[in-house]
Amino acid sequence: MTADKRAPEAVAVLDMGASAVRLVIAEVAAGRSVRVVEEASRGVLLGRDTFSGGVIRPKTADATFAALEGFRHIIDTYRVQRIRAVATSAVREARNSELFLDRVRGRTGIAFDIINGAEESRLVYLAGHVHRSVRTAAGDPPGGGRRVTPPHPYDASLFINRELSWLAFNERVLE
After folding, report:
1. I need a surface site. Which of 25, 71, 87, 121 has the fewest CB within 10 A?
2. Sheet holding 82-87, edge to edge
3. 9: containing domain
4. Largest CA distance in the chain
5. Which residues contact 112 (CB under 8 A, 6 or more apart)?
6. Which is more confident, 72 or 24?
7. Strands 34-43, 82-87: parallel, antiparallel or unpaired by DSSP?
8. What is the pLDDT of residues 63-81, one digit of tens each?
9. Which segments of 26-127 does DSSP mark as H helices, in order?
């Protein structure tokens, strides 16, 4: 096949945030056009543990492992070869983050990068300015294809985390 006729490559992004773990799988065509084919999210309260007690507790870790094992199955179903996995403040600030991420890698084969506060802030800033030209399997860009001004700070958190996943995908997997 010529470079222009290559089959799309399936890639994945995982975002481990304070309240959920999110997965986005997309197909990237030779011209770098991107089509999101799968999105999943599982609520896990890593932030509750870290921000109240300083560590990720076993019950929360087990819920996270279960979510990531399910995501691993989805990733394998799509035959994804490239994965970008990022963890933010809830993991970064936990005293047991290294042990936790070692266990994640051992159980799922997925290595998460902890992004620092500056990188997280940069991605959050860019989330409000990203130009949307990507289409999902349903035909809509992520986030509904429009800039959203969330009416409430908690809604803003959910919006930002979704965009953080998307920006990590665009900037890291596709570079």
Report:
1. 121
2. 113-114, 82-87, 9-16, 20-28, 34-43, 135-136
3. 3-173
4. 55
5. 14, 16, 85, 86, 87, 91, 101, 104, 105
6. 72
7. unpaired
8. 999 999 999 999 999 999 8
9. 46-53, 58-77, 89-92, 97-108, 117-127
Dig out the tokens for 19 from the structure. Answer: 């309240």
Angle subtended at Cα 100 by Cα 158 and Cα 37, rounded to the nearest 5 degrees? 45
Residue with tokens 């665009």: 170
| Residues belonging to the chain | 175
Query: How far is residue 112's CA from residue 10's CA, in Å, rounded to a whole number?
Result: 19
Which residue is associated with the tokens 């470079």?
3
Dist. CA 83–CA 169, nearest whole Å: 9
Of 166, 99, 82, the C-alpha closest to 127 is 166
> Which residue type sits at 73?
H
DSSP state of 4: G
- 97-108 and 58-77 are packed helices; what angle lies between their axes, rounded to 10 degrees? 40
Reading the block at residue 64, the tokens are: 């996270």
Residue with tokens 């309240």: 19
Number of domains present in the structure of the chain = 1
Query: Tens digits of per-residue pLDDT, 123-134?
Result: 665 544 443 433
User: Which residue is associated with the tokens 């691993």?
Assistant: 72
* Calpha distance 52→33 (Å, rounded): 42
